[in-house]
Design brief:
Layout: H1 2-28, H2 40-56, H3 59-79, H4 88-102, H5 109-120, H6 122-132, H7 135-154, E1 159-160, E2 166-167, H8 168-179
Antiparallel strand pairs: 1-2
Length: 180
């Protein structure tokens, strides 16, 4: 009984993820013959597809589902008459498939909220990256990101005898904090 309840709540979580992202995309897709593909129903169904395939634990079936979503996205992209070369909806649909699968074993709602928030913040993010952020600030952010996300994980986290027992990881953490 407990497994059935867990499975049902996992399917509900997958459905919630698909609905959340689908509502955001539905609001953007417009109406009439010029509307973009994939709205609230499509996203909900794709999330449930991901959950269902995950329950069956068949890797080839997951590959088939992923290829189906990718194929539909490609066809939609080719048929798009809006003149907008973006592929955000297509990528969001594929991410929704993965979130549906993740919902069966891991809480995926936080990731769905992040995805929906990124999609909803389109104009703010575009304005920030093209108008607000200067070239120098962007360069500084890249250097900080490299220091924190590339160098820091590669730095040994143990005292180095050749440096008088200094832990390079701790030193680099301090460097990252100072850069921040």
């Amino acid at each position: 009984m407990s497994t059935a309840v867990n499975s049902l709540s996992s399917f509900a979580l997958a459905l919630g993820c698909g609905l959340l992202i689908g509502v955001e995309r539905e609001r953007r897709k417009g109406s009439g013959p010029q509307r973009q593909y994939a709205g609230v129903r499509t996203f909900a169904l794709v999330a449930l597809l991901g959950a269902g395939v995950q329950v069956l634990a068949q890797p080839l079936l997951m590959l088939a589902a992923a290829l189906l979503v990718a194929g539909l996205s490609i066809v939609s992209y080719w048929r798009d008459r809006s003149g907008d070369p973006g592929v955000t909806t297509e990528i969001a649909l594929f991410v929704t498939l993965l979130l549906g699968a993740m919902a069966m074993y891991r809480p995926a709602i936080a990731a769905a909220v992040v995805v929906a928030s990124l999609l909803a913040a389109r104009m703010s993010l575009q304005r920030f990256s093209t108008q607000t952020l200067t070239e120098r600030e962007f360069h500084s952010a890249l250097v900080l990101a490299a220091a924190a996300l590339i160098v820091l994980p590669l730095t040994p986290n143990q005292p180095q005898s050749w440096l008088g027992s200094v832990n390079l990881y701790t030193v680099w953490q301090l460097v990252v904090v100072l850069m921040l």
